[in-house]
Amino acid sequence: MAAPCAEDPSLERHFKGHRDAVTCVDFSIKTKQLASGSMDSCLMVWHMKPQSRAYRFTGHKDAVTCVNFSPSGHLLASGSRDKTVRLWVPNVKGESTSFRAHTATVRSVHFCSDGQSFVTASDDKTVKVWSTHRQKFLFSLSQHINWVRCANDDKTVKLWDKSSRECVHSYCEHGGFVTYVDFHPSGTCIAAAGMDNTVKVWDVRTHRLLQHYQLHSAAVNALSFHPSGSYLITASSDSTLKILDLMEGRLLYTLHGHQPAGRGIEAFPCDLDRLLGLGLVQLRRGPATTVAFSRTGEYFASGGSDEQVMVWKSNFDAVDHGEVMKVPRPPATLASSAGNLPEVDFPVPSGRGRSVESVQSQPQEPVSMPQTLTSTLEHIVGQLDVLTQTVSILEQRLTLTEDKLKQCLENQQLIMQRTTP
Q: How many CA atoms lie within 13 A of 16 on its CB side?
């Protein structure tokens, strides 16, 4: 049984460069790079070494919705709302080839474990498989009845047999739309995130629901298994990341970090309590839109509507996961036939994983803090959040005022030109 170490996950790097919400992140184990996509239509490739130059790749005509490194790290695939897929060489030149993959937004792109093919999913209700090097369409899977994201918007997760091209099973127990799905490293389980704030884990051999978590207060946008298979991390519109211990079926950590888009904390004299009472501001952080563990599990990255990419150090106990990590990972949301899946047991905690949020870290010695001090600190944090929202509103109003003033000056110049003989 794996247990969290005494040291909590820690923020390692903080990348700024996108000009709109970050939608997706992915690590490359070979090149030690991190790729991110954004609503600003650009890809960024970040180097984990300090002071290393980041690459900005342009080419998509609309928001980038998904990125994925090939197993070798020599190719980077991206999908976009412009209905295309691009294959990039992630170096300083940033060369790419583009092809129209679907008739609607491409929501997911994922290389198969051998790197010879990749899978795309789209709002056109299809999943398509492509040859990597020939960039040739191989075949399509089309039994969904609504948009296909990483999972889809017909409230089901479908398990496909790549050889027969048939749907092996449909999981329909989500109360809302399914936003994301990921395979357990052993290939025996899948986890699905939902708009109904839940995370569910199924056994793909027996199709049995193993665990069901209801820990977020808003939609779960993304999730990622740790390579050991013992942990699962989630990103939610409630602005938090949560790390789950799957072996015990409980919450280990809740992490905050992403703020409202582009807003820092600035000093501004105002009556915060009055603004709260008038309902002009709300205590609300920005959604965490994406999260992914690195291939080794040493790090995980998150992105948010605040345009930032954060890299966290896991700091989990160093346990021997060699045998688990040697098990081949099934490609994307496809799977081999159920009979060929490796026989790796996944423990089922009592109560299907339902748990009350646990303390984020367990200190060596109990430390008491006066209730008045705790309340004061919480109040300060709340006031700072209010201040951030206030500055945001003022900036928006200032921008509108400047735009109107500019328009008035232009109109005045036109009138003067017409009246001048």
A: 7
The structure tokens listed for 49 are 């070494």
Higher pLDDT, 335 or 241: 241
Q: What angle do CA 244, 385, 237 make, to 5 degrees?
A: 35
Q: 164 falls in which pLDDT band (50, 70, 90)?
A: low
Q: Which of 151-160, 199-208, 350-359, 399-408 has the lowest mean pLDDT?
A: 350-359
Q: Please list the alpha-helical segments (H only) found in 6-75.
A: none
Q: Which two tokens stand for residue 164?
A: 């027969």
The sign one gets for the Cα dihedral 225, 289, 61, 137 is positive
When pLDDT is averaged across residues 40-66 and rounded to a whole number, the result is 91
Interstrand relation of 334-335 and 157-161 (parallel, antiparallel or unpaired): parallel
Q: What's the half-sphere exposure (Cβ side, CA atoms, 13 Å) at 305?
A: 14
Round to whole Å and give the CA distance between 346 and 371: 41
Any bridge partners for residue 301, and if so which? 292, 311
Length of the chain: 421
